[in-house]
Amino acid sequence: GLALGRVDGKRRVRFQLGPVPFTGGQYWVTVGVHSRDNQRVYHVQDQRYSFEVRQTEGRRDQTYVPVTAEVEDL
């Protein structure tokens, strides 16, 4: 997971993923927010979002997926 520290109140969290090592196809994303010790689940959106990867000839798969996140007041 990605440690965001304490997030109080209503917030929007935006994630950005770097190069992803997927082959062509449609992929579904599950997002969950839980306590640091994984004992309490605050929110889960199971396979609610999807994205499509188009296969490109000559494309080399990558193995490093950098992720950043930002939290903003609503």
Could you characterize what this model shows?
The chain has 74 residues and is mainly beta. It has one domain. Helices cover 0% and strands 50% of the residues. It has no helices and four strands. It has a two-stranded antiparallel sheet. It has a two-stranded antiparallel sheet with strand order 2-3. It is elongated and about 45 Å long. The chain starts with 10 loop residues before the first strand and ends with a strand. The mean pLDDT is 80.
In total, the number of strands is 4
Question: Compute the gyration radius: what is it?
Answer: 15 Å
Order of helices and strands: EEEE
**Arrangement of strands in the largest sheet:** 1-4
Helical residue percent band? under 10%
How many structural domains does the protein architecture include? 1
Shape: elongated
Q: Give the uncertain stretches in residue-range form.
A: none
Biggest sheet overview: 2 strands, antiparallel
Query: How far from one another are the termini?
Result: 23 Å
The whole-number mean of residue pLDDT values reads: 80
What's the total helix number?
A: 0
Q: Structural class of the helix and strand makeup?
A: mainly beta
**Beta content:** over 45%
